[in-house]
Design a protein that fits this description.
438 residues, alpha+beta, six-stranded antiparallel β-sheet, 30 strands, 21% helix, homodimer, 10 helices
Amino acid sequence: MNIILLSGGSGKRLWPLSNDIRSKQFIKIFKTEDGGYESMVQRVYRQIKAVDTDAAVTIATSRTQVSAIHNQLGDEVGVSVEPYRRDTFPAIALATAYLHDVQGVAPDEPVVVCPVDPYVEDDYFIALKSLSEQAAKGEANLVLMGIEPTYPSEKYGYIIPELKDTVSPVKTFKEKPDVETAKAYISQGALWNGGVFAYKLQYVMDKAHELIDFTDYADLFDKYETLEKISFDYAVVEKEPRIQVLRFAGQWKDLGTWNTLTEAMDEPTIGEAVLNDACDNVNVINELNVPVVCMGLKDVIVSASPEGILVSDREQSSYIKPIVDKIEQQIMFAEKSWGSFRVIDVDEGSLTIKVTLNPGHRMNYHSHFRRDEIWNVISGEGTVIVDGMEQPVKPGDVITMQAGCRHTVFALTELKLIEVQLGEEISVHDKQKFELES
Amino acid sequence: MNIILLSGGSGKRLWPLSNDIRSKQFIKIFKTEDGGYESMVQRVYRQIKAVDTDAAVTIATSRTQVSAIHNQLGDEVGVSVEPYRRDTFPAIALATAYLHDVQGVAPDEPVVVCPVDPYVEDDYFIALKSLSEQAAKGEANLVLMGIEPTYPSEKYGYIIPELKDTVSPVKTFKEKPDVETAKAYISQGALWNGGVFAYKLQYVMDKAHELIDFTDYADLFDKYETLEKISFDYAVVEKEPRIQVLRFAGQWKDLGTWNTLTEAMDEPTIGEAVLNDACDNVNVINELNVPVVCMGLKDVIVSASPEGILVSDREQSSYIKPIVDKIEQQIMFAEKSWGSFRVIDVDEGSLTIKVTLNPGHRMNYHSHFRRDEIWNVISGEGTVIVDGMEQPVKPGDVITMQAGCRHTVFALTELKLIEVQLGEEISVHDKQKFELES
């Protein structure tokens, strides 16, 4: 199975766990069998591989997520990077061209497109395989997954099938309705549209060439900035007469708000938390290394991260976005392809961060115009390169780097640094990257 | 006026702001005219000086609080250090001997004893002056302040006066009653006993010599460990027939719980906090440098500090002690005589702290057996002494110190360091102090 996972943009609906650079799909919130936690993207990837070991997974995403994806899924996964934010049609066209030109997928092979963050069980991925197989038959140009509604939701679009069979031609689509209209749709056998569909690769390549003047993947990538923003639904689905829908009756949840996310937690708390007996229906997600103590709370969600602390009534939590959008703050935590960093102190003229490099990885060879830096190695072993000079490092070693000096560090084992940045205008944008000669 | 302020022990009733080394009286929670915040001990000290510029203030306290006292009140204030924790009679005897032998207070001068943490207005300190003047008259051996009750409290002891006059002989004392009994006391004209009284210095010196075999302050200090734990009430007040009470009708509050403390706040929030419109009767005290966002909460107290995060229903907050007593954690923040430090990262084999030295101050000259340290100077100027070698330091300078190496730093201006500690067994107890030769 070829599968494209659409990994959507960042947002603050799950602040302080999500922010402008950390999307909800990367939050480690689901308990794993070994007692650790995995993120939505890790969970979905693991589930796909469990159902289809040979599945070729490609994640279609923006440049900002590439580091987090490789950090969480490793280097095996395919990534189709959207160099600019356009809508779903350009994104799916680009990812499909990537499958063809980079991954070598044949034109008549089926491709499944699916959001990266559904909260589902294995039966969902078995249904994706059926979707892929149905597309391979060529009875229709597009095969959609239709999810059997569990309540008359106003949040989803509806697919009206012609038949009650597992696979049916689509009669029509309906936009997000009000509750009464949703009830009427459901009585007619309507299904939720979860944004999941399959097609033969050539079909989308043809559509792409109809609408965009390009030669191949590399050309499409280079032109990406000039593309019109247009959704796949509008550009393709609504105009396509040959569409089938495949019915899926299993569990399907969209964990887009604190309310739905905490409902999916296996235990009421993650991280250090103490709840007294007078607490009722309280969830705590604490990413800090100090305890959260809750007393006498009812229907409350508490979340603490390096970015901030949320304490919200469960219902109210869906109104979070406009409130946190007003908060201007610097990024306090980020995952990178080579590891992660966390801001541990902010002061006038200095910024102190803790850097963790994964074994075998290194950051870019880079310099800064307007700040000096000091590395204090606190654990692990590695090699530092400063202005072309290589030197092994171990805990207790200190490396000082003046502004302008080119530097990187390569981790032999997991390597942790306390990095002290000194300068009047410290900014993440003050960074020049260089190629390493070697 | 000579005044002894009893500065009580540490505790966790106001966790995460108070802990084993930071008592509630040092939490900066009251808004000052210049827009900053002051602690209970700063507020009381300022109020005393406003009412009586010449007041000689001595704080009777344990060794652990001396740093915080000098940090918050400066070096002018007298401090009678209790080398061990005994009860109030030994503490008051020691402080009184300190006044006589160290401060040179004459035997017939009056002394006022008062807790360090009442939440009161200036009229209270005017009443303390009256108390002092009344003691000077010598009509009684002890003059107590009796606070006019505002409700039949079960939390306080009661003083029953003989007369309704401002000054009256005491008829009897009553232990903490139930509400009904309290009502009966109040109808008889009973007053709350707030633990405030005055005497002529010689009176307590005589009582001390009756019960303890000692020559002078230094001798009493040296013997302190051997003294019996006994309260001043039990040792002196209950046995004394010549006692007067002076009536005080002004505002008097004991801010010992989160509930009473937050009631005394001038504004609902301290520190970075955002409350949406659906919040009602919510207080936030946030000592972290990231925002706390509250949504749809009612009657809730939120407090965040480097030690942890409390989210509590207002009523429930009084049950905090047993819950936080179970939390074992390292001290994350401390005030010292020379400044303060805050733990900013804890990892296996390393601890990173931010050290702030006040101008003109230095830490002890010391060494560690089992850890190396690295100082990264991030702001200010000063002088570092390492194994007797002096060297000026400025931002960007790095000083590395192997285990065993003696070191200190003197701040010329406010000086900030990021200190990285490296070792397998990092402990605050691993510290040897030395005299500086110079």
